Every structure is written in C-alpha cells, then in structure tokens.
Amino acid sequence: MKLNWKFWEKNPFVTPNESGWTGKVGKGAGMVAGAVVGIYLLVVIALWWWWSYEPDMFDPVAVAKERATEAGVEPVIGYTTATTIVVLAETLLDKRGGYLSNDVFPPGVIVDNVPNWEFGVLVHARDISRALRNDLSRSQSQSAEDPDLAIAQGRFFYDNASWIFPASESEYRKGAAHVTDYATRLANRTAEATQFYARADNLARWLQEAETRLGDISQRLSQSVGKKQLHLGLAGDPAATQATDTRQDTQKKTSWFEIDDVFYEARGQTWALVHLLKAVDHDFAAVLDDKNARVSLRQIIRELEATQEAIWSPMILNGGGFGFLANHSLVMASYVSRVNAALIDLRDLLDKG
Predict the structure, then answer these.
(1) Contact 125/192 with Cβ under 8 angstroms?
(2) 60 preceded by cis ω (within 30°)?
(3) Per-residue pLDDT tens for 68-111?
(4) Environment class of residue 150 by beta-carbon count within 10 Å: exposed (0-12), middle (13-18) or buried (19+)?
(5) What is the dihedral of CA 291, 68, 205, 309, to 10 degrees?
(6) DSSP letters spanning 256-301
(7) Model pTM?
(8) Structure confidence by residue, pLDDT tens digits, 178-187
(9) HSE-up (13 A, CA, CB side) for residue 20
(10) I need a labelling partner for 18 at 20 to 30 A (CA). Which of 29, 76, 174, 314 fits?
C-alpha cells in the first residue's frame, strides 16, 4: 500500500504504520475531551459560587412610589402591599441565576441553599396573595372576589419544582402580572369595584397565618440539636380527642443533611416577611396608630432585619446549645421565636386594643 505522506503532513494526529493509516486520534480526542470536561467543571463551579447568594433587601415604599410613577398613577392604600408581592415574585425569578428550585441540570441542580431560601420566600408570597384575595380586597365574606387576585393566587400555589409543561417560572410570572393589574386598577380612583380594605380584623387574620409559619420554622430550627417534646395536642380541653394514639414524650432531631436546608428556608421566610411588614406599616398606618400598635410592629421589623445579617462562616454550624462551636439554627430560632411571640401580642392588640 502506498502511503500518502502529504496527507500525514497536514494531519499530525494521524501516523502511518505497516497496515496503512492508524491515528493517534484516540489520544488526541481524549485530550480534547478532558480539556472540555475540565472547562465545563470550572464553569459549573464558578456559576455555583456566583448563584449561591441571597438578594439584597429593598424599600417597599420607595419601590411602590417608583412603580406608580412609571405606571402614571398615584399610590393609594394597598398599592404598596400589592407591589411588594410583585417584587417578591420578581426577585425569585430575576435574581442572579434566576429561579433554581426546578433546575434539573448543573449548576442549578447542585445549588442547595438557594432553592430552600426561594421556598421560604414563596411560602409568605402565597399566604399574602391568599389574604389579599380572601380578606384585604373584600368588604365581607359575601362580597365578590377580585378576578385578577383569584387567578394570581392559583398561579402562586403552582408546584415550585416543575421545570416544564408549564415551568414554575411562567406560572409565578403570570401571578405577578395579575397582581400588577389589580394594583393598577386599585390606583384608578374611578374603579370603585377594586378595593383594598385596611382594617384591623383583616390585618389580624393575615398575621395569624404568619404566626403559624414562624412557629413551625422555629420548632424545626430548634430540633437541630435534638429536642424532647411532650405531646400538647389535647392540652387545655378535657373533652378533646384525636384520630390516633401518639406517644406522650418524643425525641425530635433534624437530620444532619437537612440542617442547612431548614436554616435557609427560615432566612427566606424572614426576608419575605420583613418586606411585607414594612408594606403593612405603610398601608395600615391609620389602623396601627389608632391602636397605638405601630411601635410594636416596628420592633418586630427590627428583629426580622437582624435575621438577615451576613453569615461569616463558610458553612452552617451545628454546635451544641452551650457547646464550643456556634449553632446558627438556634440563633435563628431565637429571633424567629421572639418575632412569633411579638406577632401574637400585636394581633391581640389589634383585636382588643
């Protein structure tokens, strides 16, 4: 067989042997593949680091005024609360890396803390959208609900991990769009059918939902080091019954693999709640002043802001309650428990003050 030396000069990865042309293609291709994989891993690691962050806080009142100016309307009672819901949803979708909870490919699928933070924010976005639909925009239980808010609530309650047909992002963006439409109509003083009722009973009902959320996350944070707990389901009512028997004394402890998940969900919940309460402080100003409750609300906001301090540790530590190492979960639980107790007092003040 005659060898084509000119071909070899143009193709250095291919060399002649006694049977003709046998390439070093395998070796060359392996080097190229290794380089590609290496570059891909570096990109994944860089994006993983870049996306693993929590968005900055914002001023709900200032943002509402800015958006009202862009829309050519004047902010009215309730406009700030509605706009804050929209901004919470947009932050989930448009922050660095976008919405990560439904990612199925790297680097999004390996980012762990941010999806838990996202779920924490989503919990309160869902609760306030339901309260806006059922209470804040209606004068009484027999009044008609707002059509945009009815659709928005369903969109926000869509599966948070759906990546296709439809994706979670598209549903949440539609929900935000419907709340925006409601807010625009609300600012139109001729649209008398669109309302926001800043009443003490409406606010108290939403605060009660927030209490239950914080009570749950506080318990889960406390279980980071293990917690013995008595069964309190029937306490206070001698005639109370329950479906099945339960042990009177249980030991509950969060799995080591879930401690940081619970912590970042708590960070997301408190991040969302501090913005919503700032919006409430603005929209319910007259009610809060009448009940002499505004200072109580602002102290709650201050406690929540403390939960957003920077974390200087490279990982969430889980030291013993009085051990040598810190326990970030117990520190967070301390703030959340104080806020939960203060919300109960605030709600009682709104009901009876």
Answers:
(1) no
(2) no
(3) 999 999 999 999 999 999 999 999 999 999 999 999 988 888 88
(4) middle
(5) -90
(6) TTTHHHHHHHHHHHHHHHHHHHHHHHHHTHHHHHHTT-HHHHHHHH
(7) 0.88
(8) 999 999 999 9
(9) 1
(10) 29
